[in-house]
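hiii so um. not sure if this is the right channel but i have a protein structure encoded as tokens and i wanna go backwards to a sequence. like what aa goes where. can anyone help
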């Protein structure tokens, strides 16, 4: 019985991401296929919207607990990644301003959203699992959110003018989204570290807890992404947006790793550029672009989590092979 339980736990731990993705998509498709469940939809949506930020807060709080404050300092690779995200976003925005009738415009806007979308709050968890520098990824997450808060209000109104929405209002909207889920967990973790050292030490006894919280959060993210895709109502451009999100994902993981390799941190830089806060990206799409463009965030959720699952599988196999060599 003990061996069976160990095998089950190991299976769930090893394949948590794929299981979360399948469960999230399946839950929404089952709900969509059964009309009797539809009256509960608004209530379930509110529950999901309230629970997910709490899970993200807990996950990031646990990640910050494992990082020494002095470890959070800028590195050269971060400057290059900021230039890549900001530079390409501004370039594509100006292209649409001067060529408003550009073919595949929705695809370009989807690529813009995928490129400027900030690093996922869960990125530190995955980076730690892959053997990267968690502190570096968290530092970059703070920096890219600040850049997004400036660039999006500056550039997006040139493409989609919004009556009555000034730069300062858009800036404050983004900060209101960023601050509770990025700065507050950091402050809470540091307060616990210095004021409640015993509780902090107890939390450190559960190194995989943040990963499991993320798996649950991922289930909700995939559920909401599936909902956005099903209700996009724009089948003519879905393939265009799908392709743009996939190419953006491949490009960012590839370029991030290539830049990071020059500074000895391919895992951290690759994850920082490639793994996105797609919930925030979907919100940006709805708020500043158009609802159909926000679907790009839903597709990107699938792509980067499939890639993360493959990376973690490869890392697990490498570690198992190394242990077998040591045991011989």
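sure thing!! here u go:
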């Amino acid at each position: 019985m003990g061996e069976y339980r160990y095998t089950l736990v190991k299976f769930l731990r090893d394949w948590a991401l794929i299981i979360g993705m399948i469960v999230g998509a399946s839950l929404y498709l089952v709900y969509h296929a059964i009309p009797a469940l539809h009256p509960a939809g608004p209530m379930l949506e509110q529950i999901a919207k309230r629970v997910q930020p709490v899970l993200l807060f807990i996950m990031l709080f646990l990640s910050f607990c494992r990082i020494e404050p002095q470890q959070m300092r800028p590195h050269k690779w971060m400057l290059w990644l900021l230039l890549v995200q900001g530079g390409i976003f501004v370039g594509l925005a100006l292209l649409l301003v001067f060529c408003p009738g550009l073919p595949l415009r929705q695809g370009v806007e989807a690529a813009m959203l995928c490129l400027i979308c900030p690093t996922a709050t869960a990125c530190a968890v995955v980076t730690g699992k892959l053997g990267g520098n968690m502190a570096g990824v968290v530092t970059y997450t703070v920096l890219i959110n600040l850049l997004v808060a400036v660039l999006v209000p500056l550039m997006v109104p040139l493409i989609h003018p919004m009556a009555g929405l000034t730069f300062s209002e858009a800036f404050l909207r983004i900060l209101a989204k960023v601050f509770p889920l990025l700065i507050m967990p950091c402050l809470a973790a540091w307060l616990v570290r210095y004021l409640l050292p015993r509780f902090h030490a107890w939390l450190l006894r559960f190194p995989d807890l943040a990963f499991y919280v993320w798996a649950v959060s991922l289930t909700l993210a995939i559920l909401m992404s599936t909902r956005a895709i099903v209700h996009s109502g724009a089948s003519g451009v879905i393939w265009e947006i799908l392709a743009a999100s996939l190419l953006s994902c491949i490009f960012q993981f590839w370029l991030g790793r290539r830049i990071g390799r020059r500074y000895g941190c391919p895992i951290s830089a690759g994850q920082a550029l490639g793994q996105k806060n797609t919930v925030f990206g979907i919100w940006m799409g709805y708020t500043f672009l158009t609802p159909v463009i926000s679907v790009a965030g839903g597709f990107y959720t699938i792509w980067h989590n499939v890639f993360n699952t493959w990376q973690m599988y490869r890392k697990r196999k490498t570690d198992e092979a190394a242990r077998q060599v040591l045991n011989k």
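oh and The radius of gyration is 20 Å.
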